[in-house]
Amino acid sequence: MSLDQYSFCPCGNGKKIKFCKCNEHFPEMQIIHRMIAGEQNVAALDRINVNLKTLPSEPWLLAMKSELLLQLGELESLEETSAKFIRLQPDNPLAKLYRSLVAVVRGNTEEGATLMLQAISDATEALPPLTATVAMNLMESMGQRGMILPALLHCEMLLDMGGDMVRVASSAYDSLVSHSNSNTLSRESLPSPIEAEDAPYSERLAEANALVGSYRISTAKTKLESMQREFGSQAPILQVLLYCQLMLTDVEAAGMTCRKIADIASLPQPQRIYYQALGYDLAPKANGVAVNEELCQYVIEDSEFEQKLQENKHLLPIAVDQLKGLLEAFLSEEVQPKLAFVSVEPVLQEQFCELDAARTGSWMAYYGKQTDKPARLISLEPPIGARRAILETTKKELGIGSLNRELLEKMPSSYLSQVTASIMLRKQVAPERRSALNDATRQLVLDGFLDYPQECLSGKSPREAAGNDSLKLKLAALLLHWQGSGTCSLTDNQFKELHQQLHLQVPKISASEDVFDLVGGASYFWTDLSDIDPNSLIQLMQSALTRGVTSIYENLVQKSEQMQWPDEFKLSAEYTQLNLKTRTTSDPDEAESLLRRIVEAGKELGVPIGNAVLERVEVLNMLGRSGESRQFLEQSLRDNPNDPVLLQFVQTAMMRHQQARGGRPEAAIASSSAPSSGLWTPGQSGEPQSSAGGASGGGSKLWIPGMD
Questions:
Q1: How does pLDDT run across 622-639, given as a tens digit for each residue?
Q2: Which residues form the domain of 634?
């Protein structure tokens, strides 16, 4: 791209070069620009550094140097240059964006979000192109840290901006809403704030909303906090404040604001339950649904201890690699443990003794004696509950109960990790026994939840809190949060039965209302299906399928089968209904038949069918019909040469084949997924497929697509 007098000045102030004071350096600017365009990045950087010796404060030089350092992946130098840039140009949007990017890569999402929003607010004629890079990396970082709702709100902001930002945000949005490891409540936007036209603070609230609309989120937050101190807990104020806190990634403060909103008695009960449950998800510790597991160490002097570990019937060996990352992070251990185990306890022996079923507990890692360290046992110890009981039994049998217990680290964990029963089966389940086993396992999960004391319930278990009027709202919110987590196998009808058992009433909101704008993600569980219209039902079905809200699939399928679908909806309804059924069936023969029909309906609708094709191939192979599977796959590849999923499948297969032969795969094949801790820049290969990866901190090295 050429650089002329009517190009925007590289300094980032939003002016054309002709009207910017940097214009006096235009000839030198052109020379450096041509060098960069010719990919002479190192030479261009050298020339910039020479210029900075005589012109140390020129913003266009600092901006161009920052751009080159970004492309070269030099984070340390970029951090130093961006600090100087923003110090000399504190109101420059580009300076804020570079500083924001460094903060994001360093793991400081709050500073990164604040600076990026300020840069957007300060931009005059057009947003700097760097905005897309910063926004995408910020959302990636938030996703890695479990801040799904803040990332979603940022994504919605970008979508509302239109233009190039829509392309940047679309793939991130799809990834965020389908992030199955996060609660459904955090994968739907916030309800709209309540109107406050006649309130004494209405004028000031309108000013705060105007600040939010111009992306001056930090200023709006300060104003709203001042209003809260003056007028107390008012829902309209707190709802806008909640949005600001989430946009600034202050999830702890947002979780506390949710609790304050839930305490407002004038709000409708469903909204109060929703906000309390959202608070549980955003700030579990502050809202009383977190537990502290303890990482402990025991020094072992028993020479036969290793043999005792291997012979103990309550310990199941696991690969030491499964604990490698955690142990390195908390113990700074470079040496891997010699052995690793998960504790187990036999369950369901009366009904299913032939299956040798066992419930899993916590893990242990054993380090043999080293030159400078004695033999040690590292143990993760839950505070209470079934997992703690299994651990205590194991510790007693190993004889370590009397040993000195050294606390290494307290590790915050959700109550969900304590009440979910992971059952291991050592033998195959007969088809006729599957249903009974599912029921028995489900009861274990229910009992684990009902009998687990919760801080939010004043130390009572849900079973003990049942019927206590002062705890009803928090208990109902706990059930909503549990259902939204998707970590148990209960259906929506079974959750309704659980509500009855605990003397609670499930909120029911007419589908004629804007349910999602009232209670956000709780709408999946509280929408009254009895009066729902076809358009609303198909939207609810598709949205639930995208987000994996499995507990309501059964009811949606049943309602879909009863619905008199208009002609324009019939095929889409059938396609979505088949997908819902496929996700709930445990019969491989039924799954194969459903997938075949999904492929046929998908072709008729003209939607991508690659995922269904590959799933059917897998099921056919599992059923021993490999010949039919191969023939179906080959025919599907011929019939759908442009399907993105099938194209990626072919590319991956080619890459593996080439690797097996000792060849070197082409870079284009490997660029389908980006490193989760890397840096994404638009307009280059390898755009990230997800903005919600695993738990990974900010690194010290930038990654830009196209780099080795």
A1: 999 999 999 999 999 999
A2: 596-684
How many folded domains does the chain comprise?
Answer: 3
pLDDT in tens, 419-444: 886 788 877 877 788 888 888 888 88
DSSP labels, 491-547: -HHHHHHHHHHTT-----EETTS-HHHHHGGGHHHHEEGGG--HHHHHHHHHHHHHH
The 10s digit of each residue's pLDDT in 19-66 is 888 888 888 888 888 888 888 888 889 898 999 888 888 889 999 999
* Residue found by looking up tokens 């309108």 in the block: 206
Q: CA-CA distance, 7 to 366, in Å (whole number)? A: 64
Residue 41 near residue 50, CB atoms below 8 Å: no
Q: Give the number of other Cβ atoms within 10 Å of residue 492's Cβ.
A: 20
Name the helix (H) or strand (E) containing 113: helix 109-122
| Pair (240, 294) in one structural domain | no
Cα distance between residue 280 and residue 414, in whole Å: 10
Q: How far apart are CA 529 and CA 541, in angstroms?
A: 11
User: Does position 652 have pLDDT exceeding 90, yes or no?
Assistant: no
What's the rounded Cα separation, in Å, for the pair 105 and 700?
7
Phi/psi at 135 (5° precision): -60, -45
Task: Please indicate, yes or no, if residue 238 is contained in any of the structural domains.
Answer: yes
